[in-house]
Amino acid sequence: MNREPIKLVVVSAGLSTPSSSRLLGDRLAEAVRQSAADGGRPVEVRVVELRDLAVDVAHNLVAGFAGRTLAEAIEAVAQADGLIAVTPVFSASYSGLFKSFFDVFDNDALTGTPVLIAATGGTARHSLALEHALRPLFTYLRAVVVPTAVYAASEDWGGSGDPLIDTLPTRIARAAGELAGLLLARPPAPRAAAGAVVQFEQQLAALRPE
Q1: Which of 61, 143, 147, 157 has its CA 20 to 30 A from that of 181?
Q2: Which CATH superfamily is domain 6-207 in?
Q3: Average pLDDT for runs of 10 along the chain of length 210
């Protein structure tokens, strides 16, 4: 049986501290870890907080070069065995920072990567953003998106203990089980590094005369 650790990356686009998007990402990652452990595989979790990369992402979009910190985050995502992507919903869609981060990737960087999509917002009215915005984005990037997407509105965090009302834990468990199932079904394989991401210093060195 394969005992190699599964590399799971959580991308959180939450802007506040603490962030409900980060909280949801952490709960999903823990549920995936537990489900994978039941299948005999440990999970190594890395969290990428896009809030800390906002300036680097903007510079990359303008200059076309990824700085060291952003390049490391891109490589971590591209090399992951699985991905949990969580964004707050603004104006019925993902945040601009979330979209800008994934705009940096080559179209084939996430090919075949199992992805669990999730979002947070103030009202359940925005839950459809998962299906009309996030799922098409990762389908375009050729990722394998699990069937269950998880949306957490403000009222989902104050559970009453009623299983007919408090469905967030159930949705988290179902989505995590689906992602863990995909991860357990295939061995970790080295993914193509985000080769298009070249350090700015290297770009400058290439322009210097011999």
Answers
A1: 157
A2: Flavodoxin domain (3.40.50.360)
A3: 87 92 97 95 97 95 90 96 96 94 93 97 88 96 97 78 66 97 77 48 48
